[in-house]
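Render this sequence as a predicted structure.
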Amino acid sequence: MPNGHGGVPHYGAPVFLLILWVAVLLNQHREPRDWLLATACALAVLFGWRLSWHIHMWDAEEYGGAYLSAEDIRLARRRHLAGSLVYAGIGVVVTLAFS
């Protein structure tokens, strides 16, 4: 980026994974195949992981975490791990319910 900051937009990765996930879900719903269901579940897990990172770790990782204490970063990582499990689990349940 010209201003010296990273080129990853906020919520860019989750939106991209959501688009892929919906495309695979719609294709799997139209033409059921085991590998499409497995791919949709994998995309749901990846989506949950990246969504959790953007929600809980985006601000904590800003400037390498220089503005937060070690305790705040540890708590953000704990929230990220818990959020990853919850969001990925919801994604897999939605995937299995849709198929």
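Summary. Residues 70-98 form the longest helix (29 residues). The chain has a mean pLDDT of 90.
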